[in-house]
Amino acid sequence: MSITPTSDPLDLFRAWFDAAKEREPADPNAVALATVAADGRPSLRMVLLKGADARGFVFYTNYESRKGQELLATRHAALCFHWKSLKRQVRIEGPAAPVEAEEADAYFASRDRGSQLGAWASLQSRPMGGKMELMGRVAKFTAQFGIGGVPRPPHWSGFRIRHERLEFWQDGRFRLHDRLIYAREGAGWKTEVLYP
Predict the structure, then answer these.
(1) Mean of pLDDT values over 47-74
(2) Is residue 41 flagged as an active site residue?
(3) pTM more than 0.90
(4) Is 175 helix (H, G, I), strand (E, B) or coil?
(5) Which end of the chain, N or C, is less surrounded by CB atoms within 10 Å?
(6) 48, containing H or E segment
């Protein structure tokens, strides 16, 4: 079955993402995030998509983490969703920028308290002496904030990847896969079908 193009790639992404939410057994919003280190070496890890609209694709992290530092330095990233149960993937490339503080505050407030405290406690991507060290930091911030609200840490926020290029891939028999590219062109999109 061929991929049917839409005028806006977000419409196709939403249709595929909705199907993934129904069929994927765990975390249909899990996406591989690729960044580039200062020495030019690529770095890859999984994050969770928390929003997608005309402005781009959003996830949240510690800005002091490796991925946070790489994104702040290069301002570019790539994402890859792979939904094995659907035999589909979507690749996204574009510039990365921090989300607005109000947007990050609203998302942080929606997280459970344990995750909020964890954002304060974790010195993400830095060496740790052991699990007890982390648990001690969790206890410290639990005591600090008491039973009141937990504010968003200054080092924790989100990034938005502005999609400039998207590739929709669908498995085909005999490895004759379908590949459809969208590339931003002015205010619209140019589409191309690629060989598998």
Answers:
(1) 97
(2) no
(3) yes
(4) helix
(5) N
(6) strand 42-48
Domain limits for position 106:
9-111+152-194
Q: For 101-155, what is each residue's pLDDT tens digit?
A: 999 999 999 999 999 999 999 999 999 999 999 999 999 999 999 998 999 999 9
> Which residues share a beta bridge with 166?
92, 182
* Backbone CA torsion sign across 86, 78, 63, 50: negative
Domain total in the chain: 1
- What does the block give as tokens for 104? 């990050």
- Flag whether pLDDT at 1 surpasses 70: no
Q: Is residue 126 part of a domain?
A: no
Is position 13 within any domain? yes
For the chain, counts of helices (H) and of strands (E): 5, 10
What torsion, rounded to 10 degrees, do the Cα atoms 3, 180, 32, 50 define?
-70
Amino acid at 99: V
Would you say residue 19 lies in a domain?
yes
* Within-domain flag for 117: no
Distances (CA, A) of 60 to 46, 67, 125, 154: 12, 11, 15, 13
Cβ atoms within 10 Å of 187's Cβ, excluding its own: 5
Q: Give the model confidence (pLDDT) of 82-100 as tens digits.
A: 999 999 999 999 999 999 9
Which candidate in 66, 152, 175, 184 is catalytic? 175
